[in-house]
Every structure is written in C-alpha cells, then in structure tokens.
C-alpha cells in the first residue's frame, strides 16, 4: 500500500477501514453475539484513539495478535467462551464490504457443513507456471477465496491445536484435514484493501450503498 499507517486504519469515506468492517458484523446482530478484533499490541493505543475520535460504540474485545496470521487467529479464538454448537467467523479487517447477505449465507451453511468459505469464480483466464512456459487452467473449476470463513467453533479450535503449517494461507487450509470445506457464493464487491486502487473502488462501492 505504501501508506503512512496500517491498512486497517486508512480512511474510507472519512472513517477507518476497520470501523466499516466492524460495522458490517454488528449489523448482523442476530447472528453475531461477540466481536473480537485482533491487532498487534503496539496498535492498541491508535485504535483506542480512533474509537474515541469517531465515537465508535460497537461492543468488541481487542486481543493482541501473534507473529503470524495463524498465531493471531489462535489468540482470537482463545478470547471466545467455550460453548457447545457455537459458530465462529474469521474475517479480514481490511474487507469492509462484506454484505449482511454474505455473512448470513456463511453462518447458515456452517450450521450444516461446519466449515465454510465464501468465494467467487475468477473473471480472468488463469495460467499455471510450469518449468517450461505455462499452461491454462479451467477457471470454471477454480475459486477465489474471500472472507468471512465460518466454522464450528470446536472444530476450528481443534484445528489450531495442530502445528502451524508452512503452506498455511487461510483458516480453511488449517481445517481441511479435519473436515471438508464447503463453498458458498461470495461477492466481487467484497474486496480486500491491498493497493491504493482498492481504496478508490471501495469508496465508490460504499457511496453506491448509501
């Protein structure tokens, strides 16, 4: 991003990206009983200042993350109470456009399948790099994975008791040896803020929703 602050604190229509993300889940109050924000410990003061500045009243806990995303998710899980038949959604703090429909869809599917990701079909042609050149892949059989990723809480906790995987890319990667991963339809608007261009697109999309 090349910004002067972490991506989750960049302004999106005058508010921090992370506030928009938090609000998406607070709006699904019938589904979400507890919100946990995982941040590096040295960012706590910045977030507290932003909460005061923007009068953020959404109830949430703040937990110190670890050295890796894997370690951070594990610490976030540790902050949740143990209760039977609970579901948990893990979401990127810099995906501020996850709609209530997507969140509901993920939770509803997780009630049946226990491990769910939202994903979209690639729009562009996809090629795999080979030792000599490259070859085309059938994009109809490929999916671009988004978040939230929703799981049976006990299942995800068991998965995170296993050693950290070198090939870990998301929570589904941790769980897939214990349970098949079910895919539900995502949304191309559910973008992850990664580059300056993403901020421009996200602002335009947010304006269209107002």
Automatic annotation (TrEMBL):
The organism encoding this protein is: Hymenobacter fastidiosus
Q: Which Gene3D superfamilies does the record match to this protein?
A: Spore Coat Polysaccharide Biosynthesis Protein SpsA, Chain A
What is this protein's name? 2-C-methyl-D-erythritol 4-phosphate cytidylyltransferase
Q: Which gene encodes it?
A: ispD
Site residues, Positions MEP for the nucleophilic attack: 139, 192
Q: Please report which protein family the annotation says this sequence is part of.
A: Belongs to the IspD/TarI cytidylyltransferase family. IspD subfamily.
Q: Which InterPro entries match?
A: IspD, IspD/TarI, IspD/TarI_cytidylyltransf_bact, Nucleotide-diphossugar_trans
CDD domains given in the database record: CDP-ME_synthetase (cd02516)
Q: Keywords in alphabetical order, please.
A: Isoprene biosynthesis, Nucleotidyltransferase, Transferase
Transferase among keywords: yes
């Amino acid at each position: 991003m090349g910004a002067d602050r972490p991506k989750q604190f960049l302004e999106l229509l005058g508010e921090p990206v992370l506030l928009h993300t938090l609000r998406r889940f607070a709006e699904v109050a019938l589904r979400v009983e507890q919100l946990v924000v995982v941040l590096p410990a040295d960012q706590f003061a910045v977030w507290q200042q932003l909460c005061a500045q923007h009068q953020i009243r959404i109830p949430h806990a703040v937990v110190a993350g670890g050295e890796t995303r894997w370690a951070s998710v594990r610490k976030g899980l540790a902050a949740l109470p143990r209760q039977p038949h609970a579901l948990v959604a893990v979401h990127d703090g810099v995906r501020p456009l996850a709609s209530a429909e997507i969140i509901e869809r993920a939770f509803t599917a997780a009630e049946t399948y226990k491990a769910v990701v939202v994903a979209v079909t690639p729009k562009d042609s996809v090629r795999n790099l080979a030792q000599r050149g490259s070859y085309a892949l059938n994009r109809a059989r490929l999916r671009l994975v988004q978040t939230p990723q929703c799981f049976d809480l006990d299942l995800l906790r068991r998965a995170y008791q296993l050693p950290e995987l070198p090939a870990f890319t998301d929570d589904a990667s941790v769980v897939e040896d214990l349970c098949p991963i079910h895919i539900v339809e995502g949304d191309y608007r559910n973008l992850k803020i990664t580059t300056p261009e993403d901020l421009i697109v996200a602002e335009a999309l947010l304006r269209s929703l107002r």
